[in-house]
Amino acid sequence: MDRAPNLNDLTEMEIIQRYRFDMNGILYLEQLIGNGITPKVNRNNAISARQKILITLRYLATGPIQLNDSDLHKVSQPTVSRVLTRVIDVLSSPDIVKQFIRFPTMDDQFRRNSLQFQGIARFPNVIGVIDGTHIGIKAPHEHEEVFVNRKGVHARWPGSVHDSRVLRESGLIELFEGGHANGYYLLGDSGYPAKRWLLTPYLAPQNATEEGYNRSHKITRALVERSIGQLKKMFGVLHGEINLEPQKVCKVIVACCVLHNICKERAIPINGDDDSDDEDDNADDQLAQGVQQPPNVAGNRFRDHVAATYFSNNSCFCCC
Question: pLDDT category, 113, cuts 50, 70, 90?
Answer without folding.
Answer: very high
